[in-house]
Amino acid sequence: MSRDEYLLEMCSGRAAWTVVPEQIETIDLDIVSARIESEGWNCTLRNRLCCTFSGELADITLYPSGKLLVKSGDRGVAATIAEQHMHVWLAEF
After folding, report:
1. What's 59's domain CATH number?
2. Per-residue pLDDT tens for 34-66?
3. Angle, alpha carbons 22-25-28 (nearest 5°)
């Protein structure tokens, strides 16, 4: 499904969704990770390649490109997290 600001794609196996920002090529993982954690997500892995988080609705993986992997088979959950990602976590990028 395409949106003006991002693409929400189902991954193979139908167990996850990828949020691909269309106007962002790179982000600061530390800044965005701090925003995600401030909303109650628990960081389970942090390195230069990605950061993973666990939350009530899903587990997510954030990449330096700004892409976000949402580990949920529910499109509604993925869309809600995608909106949060684009409008709050990636604000200013």
Report:
1. 3.30.310
2. 999 999 999 999 999 999 999 999 999 999 999
3. 125
Within a domain: residue 43? yes
Give the residue carrying structure tokens 């587990």: 59
Q: How confident is the model at residue 92 (pLDDT cuts 50, 70, 90)?
A: confident
Domain that holds residue 47: 6-89
What is the number of structural domains in the chain?
1
Domain-located, residue 50: yes
Residue 85 lies in a domain: yes
Closest CA to 41 of 90, 4, 89, 87: 89
**3-state SS track over the chain:** CECCCEEEEECCCCCCEEEEECCCCCCCHHHHHHHHHHCCCEEEEECCCCEEEECCCCEEEECCCCCEEEECCCHHHHHHHHHHHHHHHCCCC
Single out the residue of 35, 8, 11 nearest to residue 22, CA to CA. Answer: 8
